[in-house]
């Protein structure tokens, strides 16, 4: 089956990228090696997390871009810990969450500095603490609180997936509700504020129109990512993918399930465009300061670029081809240093 062409918000292909991509790549590799969270440096480099950040946040300063790339790598490493190492073990994932929550709220808390038999590796916990320490210094208190809250939602979504994916008759709507949390784009969207050098106030975030915009952009990435990754996940026997869930629920062929996902993606992209169009007027009606409306519009224009960047990377990275190669016996899956030490 030919790779699915994923629609983009912008016609530019590939999207604009940062001149600091190589620096972000180097810093991300150094960070991962420092904390021992990768086993094969060459394989890790082929994932190209620095390139992902370069596409998603092209106007970021070099150090901010490197930080974004490290958070992107962190998100995919924890996703692998969840789906490919701990599996559908809700108890193990709850243990992992109990290790990471104190890191998010308190920094390098002694009780969160080491892994356990059923949770995250010590290195991944320590790497998370390091990321949190450095991110906190470049965010305002309200940005950091919002960022942490969204990271916790991502982790909670992973926990919910453990229970949901064991359901014998999982529906598209059930899957989509949990995928909304577990895809993690909420906290990556906060990083757009760093790229744009703005600090959106709570009065923007509480409006329905802003929530509509963010909800749509999250699901655009979720659907696009599922369309890219479904061959690897199907070959691995996984079911956490809308294409696979829809195929099973509605009795669709793979091609029909892909078309179904593409239709949902088109509707969701239109929902974002509608929210972006309504944003200035509805923020003004809510009494938001004109300067903050301008900042919100900046971020709203950057969100689709961020999503386009992530999806472009999804098609270029070795990540999904690697999982497919492993499932089909062409490569050996490496879990080095991701399992907690016994």
From TrEMBL:
A single GO molecular function term of this UniProt record: metal ion binding
Segments of skewed composition (Low complexity): 11-22
Enzyme class: lyase
Catalytic activity, EC: 4.2.3.-
Gene3D superfamilies, sorted: Farnesyl Diphosphate Synthase
Keyword Kinase among record annotations: no
Family membership: Belongs to the terpene synthase family.
Annotated source species: Streptomyces longispororuber
InterPro entries (UniProt xref): Isoprenoid_synthase_dom_sf (IPR008949), Terpene_cyclase-like_2 (IPR034686)
Record flagged with keyword Nucleotide-binding: no
Cofactor(s) demanded: Mg(2+)
Protein name per its UniProtKB record: Terpene synthase
Alphabetically ordered keywords of this record: Lyase, Magnesium, Metal-binding
Region (Disordered): 1-22
């Amino acid at each position: 089956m030919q790779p699915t062409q994923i629609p983009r918000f912008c016609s530019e292909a590939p999207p604009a990228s940062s001149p600091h991509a190589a620096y972000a790549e180097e810093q991300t590799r150094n960070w991962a090696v420092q904390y021992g969270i990768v086993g094969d440096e060459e394989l890790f480099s082929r994932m190209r997390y620095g390139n992902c950040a370069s596409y998603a946040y092209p106007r970021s300063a070099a150090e901010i871009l490197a930080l974004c790339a490290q958070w992107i790598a962190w998100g995919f490493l924890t996703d692998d810990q969840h789906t490919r190492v701990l599996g559908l073990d809700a108890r193990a994932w709850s243990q992992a969450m109990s290790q990471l929550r104190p890191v998010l709220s308190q920094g390098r808390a002694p009780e969160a500095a080491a892994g356990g038999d059923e949770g995250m590796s010590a290195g991944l916990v320590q790497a998370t603490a390091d990321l949190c320490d450095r991110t906190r210094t470049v965010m305002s208190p309200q940005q950091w609180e919002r960022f942490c809250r969204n990271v916790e939602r991502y982790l909670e979504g992973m926990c919910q997936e453990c229970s949901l994916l064991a359901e014998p008759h999982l529906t598209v709507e059930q899957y989509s509700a949990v995928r909304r949390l577990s895809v993690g784009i909420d906290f990556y969207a906060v990083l757009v504020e760093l790229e744009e050098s703005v600090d959106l106030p709570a009065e923007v975030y509480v409006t329905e129109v802003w929530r509509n915009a963010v909800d749509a952009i999250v699901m655009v990435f979720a659907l696009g990512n599922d369309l890219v990754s479904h061959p690897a996940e199907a070959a691995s026997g996984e079911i956490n993918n809308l294409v696979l869930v829809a195929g099973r629920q509605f009795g669709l062929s793979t091609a029909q399930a892909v078309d179904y996902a593409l239709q949902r993606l088109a509707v969701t992209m239109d929902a974002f465009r509608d929210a972006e169009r309504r944003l200035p007027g509805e923020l003004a009606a809510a009494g938001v300061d004109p300067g903050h409306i301008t900042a919100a519009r900046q971020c709203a224009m950057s969100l689709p670029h961020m999503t386009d960047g992530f999806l472009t990377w999804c098609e270029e990275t070795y990540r999904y081809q690697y999982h497919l190669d492993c499932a089909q016996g062409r490569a050996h899956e490496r879990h080095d240093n991701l399992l907690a030490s016994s």
